[in-house]
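Lab meeting notes turned into a lecture example. A postdoc, R.K., suggested we walk through two folding results consecutively so the class can see how the record format repeats. The first protein's sequence and structure tokens come next.
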Amino acid sequence: MTIISFILGFISTKLFMGFFKGMLVQSGIVRQNYMGTMIPVGMGLVFLPYIIVNACIATYFFDEKLVPYYVLGVIAMSLAGVVDDLVGDRSSSGFKGHFKALFKGTLTTGAFKALFGGAVAFLISLSFTKDIGEIILNTLLIALATNFFNLLDLRPGRALKVYSACCIPVLILSSEISRLLLGGMLASALAYFWDDIKARTMMGDSGSNVLGASIGIIAAYEFGMWTKTALLIALILVHAVSEKYSITKIIENNRLLNYIDRLGR
């Protein structure tokens, strides 16, 4: 089933891409990328159709409460990203900047994403366990995993490369239902990869949020407390570093990371 889902996800996403790109261009939803070129933004929406199709397949073959909460979480996070793609204000950056603006009475799209995403992550966590400690752990894990790929999505292909690498161990260690859901999402990401790395379109927050939420939810559902704690610590460290330093500059200053980052562009 995972192999079938993967094949369907790749093919269907490839077929949808032209329609979504045309829709964004026709609607004037374009933005200047890091090279100064105006390209469609919000192409992460192309992931949503197969997420629904894959959820239908999973629901038919498995009786698991994970499926509806997975779909709810991924789509909700994507729609929060759409808000930022359409009307995002870049005057504030990082958690510190967004919440500093909020305390001064200004709601930025970044603060909205953080608050809304945290609430969605909390709801999903409640579906897995009623232990308060694990609920908090799962909430933080899902929320920070979602934002992690947002931090990475500043250069073509970067977020998708990291996502693909992260999916491999999660898929190996997960149950069949999780492999079906995450495998389908990985297939969609790989189908879109070439357009992203060649800077023809930007998936935007509507896409990077999907990447982070999909793997964050599966990790929260599948892994034990110690593994999730280790992942959360790693995510907190990355976010703490990103508040003070540029992730892009860190990568550019490391020969190996820079080579991997630029590979394929």
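The second example is placed directly after the first for contrast:
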Amino acid sequence: MECSAREQKLLRLADKSRKLFVFLREHRHELFDDAFQAEWESIAAL
């Protein structure tokens, strides 16, 4: 999945100190199915 320009900037800033978050953003479509992501989005909307 492509990152937006804003996401790319944030990922570059976080690259050294937040490697796990960068990895998860870059690979979330491989790690988490659509149902799982939809569940997390509904929780975040609360």
